[in-house]
């Protein structure tokens, strides 16, 4: 992957990414590796092949750590393993998510808990795990993945959109709480990014055309389109930006 920009402060940085085995997460792993960062990524899917492939292309091979992030103890243990390998985590990217489609009447308490565990709870406890070292260092960056789906008021996955809205609220609160220690917390809200999962499960010609008509930039988003914005928010180039939610969607939603 050729990055459109270099962020020298990310070279050697200890980066931890959740859901890094495929889709946007895999693009992020390569994006940070290409910057010279020391990257560890967690995924529930076997992803050693990705780490091996990137290790063949870059001198700083990423570290794959098998982890179910809905198991809080396992998640925090995995973050500790990443810190042991690369030094205290200075950049956390909470990327893992499950946008499973569902309807109001089908949601059970168990389904609610399972969806919140991956889409919100894991974000909070990953931040909790990395915060002490960031505070001690007087710097650090946390980037949380939300979605424009809740801003659009989309139907078809109300538990998922509830989690997305909560992520932006949590981002703002953590930015306020950690800001005095020099730690920045921001969110990224992607539009419809055409990962292999999206194309296989939910992308139809009619749906894609309808969504594209709502964009200002009439080109579908790819996972690589999220790399630059996340690198920017993770780097000192955005040193005075915190508590924000950046929509990366081709111009569907606006803020301000």
3D structure, described in words:
The chain is an alpha/beta fold. The protein has one domain (8-248): NAD(P)-binding Rossmann-like Domain (Rossmann fold, 3-Layer(aba) Sandwich). Helix content is 44%, strand content 14%. It contains 9 helices and 7 strands. It has helices spanning 23-34, 48-57, 72-86, 109-137, 149-152, 158-178, 196-201, 205-212, 227-234, and strands spanning 14-18, 38-43, 63-66, 91-94, 140-145, 183-190, 245-248. Strands 3-2-1-4-5-6-7 form a 7-stranded parallel beta sheet, sandwiched between helices. 46% of the residues are buried. The mean pLDDT is 96. It comes from Seohaeicola zhoushanensis. This is 3-oxoacyl-ACP reductase.
Q: Could you write a compact summary of the structure shown?
A:
The two termini are 33 Å apart.
CATH architecture: 3-Layer(aba) Sandwich
How much helix, percentage-wise, in residues?
A: 40-55%
Mean pLDDT: 96
The tally of strands reads 7
What proportion of the residues form beta strands (DSSP E)?
Answer: 5-15%
- Sheet having the most strands: 7 strands, parallel
Class derived from helix and strand content: alpha/beta
Which series of helices and strands comes N to C? EHEHEHEHEHHEHHHE
Backbone shape: globular
Instruction: Output the number of helix runs.
Output: 9
> What spatial order of strands do you see in the largest sheet?
3-2-1-4-5-6-7
| CATH homologous superfamily designation | NAD(P)-binding Rossmann-like Domain
CATH class assignment: Alpha Beta
Number of domains: 1
**Rounded to an integer, what's the Rg over CA atoms?**
17 Å
pLDDT < 50 runs, ≥5 residues: none
N/C terminus separation = 33 Å
Could you please say which CATH topology applies here?
Answer: Rossmann fold
Family: Belongs to the short-chain dehydrogenases/reductases (SDR) family.
Pfam families: adh_short_C2
Organism: Seohaeicola zhoushanensis
Keywords: Oxidoreductase
């Amino acid at each position: 992957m050729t990055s459109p920009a270099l962020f020298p402060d990310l070279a050697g940085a200890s980066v931890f990414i959740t859901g890094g085995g495929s889709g946007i997460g895999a693009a992020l792993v390569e994006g940070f590796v290409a910057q010279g960062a020391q990257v560890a990524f967690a995924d529930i899917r076997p992803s050693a092949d990705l780490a091996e492939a990137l290790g063949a292309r870059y001198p700083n091979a990423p570290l794959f750590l098998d982890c179910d992030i809905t198991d809080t103890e396992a998640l925090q243990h995995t973050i500790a393993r990443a810190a042991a390998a690369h030094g205290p985590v200075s950049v956390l990217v909470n990327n893992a998510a499950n946008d499973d489609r569902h309807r109001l009447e089908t949601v059970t308490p168990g389904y609610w808990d399972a969806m919140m565990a991956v889409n919100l709870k894991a974000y909070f406890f990953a931040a909790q795990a990395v915060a002490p070292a960031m505070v001690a260092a007087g710097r650090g960056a946390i980037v949380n993945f939300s979605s424009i789906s809740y801003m659009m008021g989309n139907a078809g996955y109300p538990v998922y959109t509830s989690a997305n809205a909560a992520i932006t609220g949590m981002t703002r609160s953590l930015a306020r709480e950690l800001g005095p220690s020099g730690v920045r917390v921001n969110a990224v809200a992607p539009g419809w990014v055409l990962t292999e999962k999206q194309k296989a499960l939910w992308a139809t010609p009619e749906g894609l055309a309808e969504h594209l008509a709502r964009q200002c930039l009439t080109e579908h988003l790819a996972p690589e389109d999220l790399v630059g914005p996340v690198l920017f928010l993770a780097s000192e180039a955005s040193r005075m930006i915190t508590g924000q939610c950046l929509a990366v969607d081709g111009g569907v939603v606006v803020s301000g």
